[in-house]
Amino acid sequence: MANIVTYVYGGRAQITFKESSHVYTVAVPEKGIMDLWQPSVTGIIRVLSKADVLIPWALGEMISRVKVTLKDIPTLTPELVFAVLEASKNAHNDRKQQAADIGTYVHNFLEGELKYRAGLQPAPALPVDMPEEYATPVTNSIGAGLRFFDQHKIKLVQAEAPRWSPTYGFIGTGDLIAEVDGNLTVVDYKTSKRLYSTVFLQLAAYQMAYQEEFPTAQITRRLAINVGKDGALVTEDRFNDTLARDFRCFLSLLDAWRWDRENQGQYSKPAPPIVGPLEVEPETL
User: Fold this and answer.
1) Distance CA 56, CA 97 (A)
2) Cβ neighbours for 152, distance < 8 A, ≥ 6 positions apart
3) Fewer Cβ atoms within 10 A, N terminus or C terminus of the chain?
4) Distance in angstroms (rounded) separating the CA atoms of residues 97 and 81
5) pLDDT tens string 267-276
6) Which pairs count as long-range contacts for 95-103, CB under 8 Å and 24+ apart, including other chains?
7) pLDDT of residue 212
8) What pairs with residue 189 in β-bridges?
């Protein structure tokens, strides 16, 4: 997997995304900063525990796999049962990876479709080597996304671009900055069973990081779109009256993330330093 390099702040800073490890680093030569790791928005939000939901889900995935494995075996021994349990303990990770793969196919296609409609590239196509079992959920999700595109007037501003806040020390790649029906909007689409509240913390972080680099941008809306694997389309939006509170909540999680990293006893690690605000050059406004 390659490293993806993006220049921001008028070329004064460089973001490197290492695909193999899903790690972001930044370089700001004028400040003598090279290869500084910065935590991701999604990693910070994971501080907000979902154990009460995820543990039963993971156990359910394991039980389902055990049932499938044992149903046609006529004679069971304790050793066989233990072996099946051992082989099934990571079923939830396999399901998570499958969901992530489906999401990647869908995101890549929808990004390509928007760029195609903007005249920036040819029409997108799904990879010919996509696993057969992905075909139905991927097609359903893409269909839901295309319905949204057809129902709204969308003018692309920025797609799948890293957004870094030197002021607060976080980074992430958002799906879209676009004018949606005339409103400059931060957009993120999901392929999950439903939209979770944390998407608005994610969108608030992307909006604030974008406005930090482009302070004259008049973003008025944050839009979460769920393009379900069953083809269902669900949207939820928020406006700037909730932005301050959503961003404060995100910063609280960032503070908790930094505190947790520094308070692990013998396993403690220093939180990465914060670069601090970069003055915006006129040509980047």
Assistant:
1) 18
2) 180, 181
3) N
4) 25
5) 999 999 999 9
6) 95/61, 98/134, 99/191, 99/192, 101/131, 101/134, 102/134, 102/137, 102/138, 102/141, 102/191, 102/229, 103/190, 103/191
7) 97
8) 225
Query: Tokens 């501003």 appear where?
Result: 157
DSSP 83: H
CA dihedral 50, 257, 252, 39 (to 10 degrees): -100
Query: Domain range holding 180?
Result: 3-284
Place of tokens 């914060």: 274
Length of the chain measured in residues: 285
How many other C-beta atoms can be found within 10 angstroms of the C-beta atom of residue 249?
A: 17
Residue segments in the chain with a per-residue pLDDT below the cut of 70: 1, 49-59, 62, 66, 81-82, 84-86, 88-92, 280-285
Paired strand residues for 36: 26
Q: At what angle do helices 91-117 and 135-151 cross, to 10 degrees?
A: 40
Pair of tokens at residue 175: 């799906």
How many domains would you assign to the chain? 1
Which amino acid is present at 122? P
Q: How far apart are CA 24 and CA 19, in angstroms?
A: 9
pLDDT tens-digit map of 73-89: 777 777 776 676 667 66
Three-point CA angle 204, 208, 209, nearest 5°: 115
